[in-house]
Amino acid sequence: MLHEITLNINGETYPVVVKSQDTLLRVLREQLGLTGTKIGCENGECGACTVLFDGAPVNSCMVLAVEAQGHCIETVEGLSKGGDLHPLQKAFVEHNAVQCGFCTSGMLMSAKALLERNPHPTEQEVREALVGNLCRCTGYIRIVDAVLDVAEAGD
Amino acid sequence: MKEQTSNPVGKSVPRVDAFEKVTGAAKYVDDMAFGPTLLHGKIVHSPVAHALIKKIDVSKALALPGVKAVVTGQDNPTLLGLYLKDRYIYAYDRVRYVGESVAGVVSISEEIAEQAAKLVEVEYELLPPVFDPYEGAKPDAPLLHPDLGKYEVVNFIFPKPGTNISEHFKLRKGNVSDAGVSEEVWAQCAAVVEDQYTLPQIQHAPLETHIAVAQWNADGQVTLWAASQSPFAQRDLLAQSLGIPHGNMRVISPYIGGGFGGKAGISIEANVVLMAKAVPGHPVKVRMTREEEFVATNVRQSLVAKFKIGCDEAGNLLAMDLAYYFGGGAYNDYGVNIARAAGYSCTGPYDVPNVKGDSYCVYTNHPIGSAMRGFGMPEIHWGLEQIMDRLAEAIGMDAADFKRQNCVRSGDIILTGMTMPEVDLPKCIDKVKEAIEWGRESKPSAPHKRRGKGIAIMWKAPAMPPNPGSSAIVRFNEDATLNVYVSGQELGQGAFTVAAQMAAEALGIPYEWVRVSANPVDTKYSPYEWQTVASRVTWSMGNAVKAAAEHARGQILEIVAKYWNENPADLDIKDGVVISYKSEREQTLKKMVIYGLPNENFEGWQGGPIVGSGKFMPTYVTGLDPETGQGARAVVHYTVGAQAVDLEVDTETGQIEVLKIASAYDVGKAINPDLVLTQIEGGAVHGLSSAFECMLFDDRGRLRNPSFVDYKIVTSLDAPREIHGDIVETPLEDGPWGARGVGEHVMVQTAPAIANALYNALGVRFNDLPLSAEKIYLATHEGEELICKA
Hints:
The structure holds two protein chains of two kinds. Chain A is α+β, with helices and mostly antiparallel strands. Chain A has two domains: about 1-80, Beta-grasp domain (Ubiquitin-like (UB roll)); about 85-155, [2Fe-2S]-binding domain (DNA polymerase, domain 1), CATH 1.10.150.120. Chain A contains five helices and five strands, in the order E-E-H-E-E-E-H-H-H-H. The mean pLDDT of chain A is about 95. By secondary structure, chain B is α+β, with helices and mostly antiparallel strands. Chain B has three domains: about 20-25 and about 470-615, Aldehyde Oxidoreductase, domain 4 (2-Layer Sandwich), CATH 3.30.365; about 30-125 and about 205-260 and about 265-295, Alpha-Beta Complex (Aldehyde Oxidoreductase, domain 3), CATH 3.90.1170; about 300-465 and about 625-780, Aldehyde Oxidoreductase, domain 4, CATH 3.30.365.10. The N and C termini of chain B lie far apart (about 70 Å). At the A-B interface, helix 2, helix 3, helix 4 and helix 5 of A face helix 1 and helix 16 of B.
């Protein structure tokens, strides 16, 4: 069954036609060209497709596109404004917290959600917030340090 | 321009790919657009481990609306393989593992392809399976490859037709025979340890699963887009196997979402090319699901290793008798070279006078064992590094001292007869001892917990054919920015960044002026690179980049020297300006690198667009005697290193918490020190994870844990609080600025370092991976009656 819906992504409104079973992940990538959100398992296990759903991190492979109507969705593409990197993106670059890059978008979104609900997390809280985002390259330490750095710099 | 970095080699400049990756702009295969003519492919996998194919009926699948083609092994019964051509693209007359490609369905949507795949009917006649490599190597084991003797094979691999042994590497040194090390030698030993250690198959588990898109045009032009560590090797294998002229076969590979060896050689790519052949003009895409990634792509080989090792009372190693049985899985086209690598490095990083080593690659009815980070070395070091500790204990010596005393040093004649190139392993050992505070006991955080420290050392040589080549091109632009063309792949390790650093350094221009034109690598336009494997790219591709930059530099100096009427030897390029040490004149590179320079009074011009090219190929590796493994130069070089672990284990749950890992590796020269540290850190955590990972099969060869829920990899909560890295720099003779590789080495000995620390904590040895909490709990409660208190 087809549904005509509008999605609010990174502050922009997009009219789309989706099937009932289409996931938010597929619609972001295949209809809107927002390919920064990655397909890692399509089973809610790896976190590569993490986006923010009204500010909360979700695996977009586990959200139907029709469920997203009327909600604010944020993806990695919405992080930098006017060519300036978001402080988390800057910190990831400075800490060399990026290797292959496939988990990076999801990591950034989970980290953003954490800092919005808890601006001064402990190291343990950062690790807990990122536990659903798997990374096979970095060993996580640089990522955790980058997030802690941003938390310290903020007020 | 903003900040400028002069002489960037040795400096921790930022990664060239980081901006793209943090903004989500970096393109991977799945992010490329192929338009509305794109079709979707689905592979039909074998549900049985070992069987003859009696019949394949595709009629129901073909009849489903939206299905465009179904391909099977009958379409192209051609053998494929890197070192040993032992694999049909789609199973031809038999299947050898659960997950093997039996057919490929092409349709207008992913959903229809999935449905159609279920409609392909295959009739199997079951054969007895082989799962254990040691049992499988026996003469009476059921045969997986009755045609082994007919397969095409490179001249340094020795299959044993009539058995399941696809490679047998023999190493004989000192007072030994095929029967073993001489009794005379054992009689001199004060301590001998004889034992067996095993490891299961494990998965690379990159975040990006295997993905390929192929298009076969009516004019014979074939294009493959693939997440690939080996675009050129894939082009070569596909061209050979499918009879396509190399010039018509094009492989395009953008950024890769993690490789670790799993995307080396060839996996699903040929299957997708054959799907595309059936629907000319249409691109066809196959993205492996996570379950397929676990079941039906390459994995690390399993190993059954038998050791007998002895030393004298002063702690000098005297003898090693080693037998390695690698569980190569169903096809060993790449895996044979892992067994070979484990054979010519079978002693680990030790100087031992008497060695009998036999390394076998054995066919089993499990997934295809292939390249994975470390390529045979994590497997053999698992047992070796624990036995060294046991020998040290037996003669009352400190384990670190024992390893330091026996480890290889520059100039040693090592097991194959080759002279050990410059490296400093004792220094690596000293560094990690200091970092982990070796010998100092730490208090556990609770009465039911135990603390322990362990140390392990390693070596690894790039395992490859004797002559794998690299090439590079540099091209200037009008503003003197430079594009560097390479085909070393950016898997996350930082290949592009070091290429840019080296080009800038060799040319004398700022780092910020360099752009790396390698995303995607495109075999139609990019210079040749054998494969991004074996930790060879910084060294081999780096040498090619340096040569290309020097070629361009020579052209520039010649033009300016002529312009000034000076000798090129008196000129140099500094920060993008040509200077003369003699006349102190200066000439900016801008414009002149494209337009050249005018002659005096504008009477004509000289020069022109500057393009430099360079290549590198090792020319000195020799063959080895098939009976003894002896030869002048077995490998190009070795990278060595040490790791030490500090951990705490909970005796009530069997849970291990690794608190700290300290690593030190001799990288020759750190082109980008912080990127070396990121490898050391990421590798240590990968190594830690590998100690707990296991592909769990049932008795019919079916994988029971093909998901991240059941196959757990380390998460942010499991990673140690602290990973300490030390970089040792003993320059490599033929490395660019002395550099050698380090990408794989960083996880080779982590598992045995953990096992040694566990022994230190608990007094219990673990011979078989994985180190599950259950196993540790049971070992620490041996003899107790276990009662469920819940």
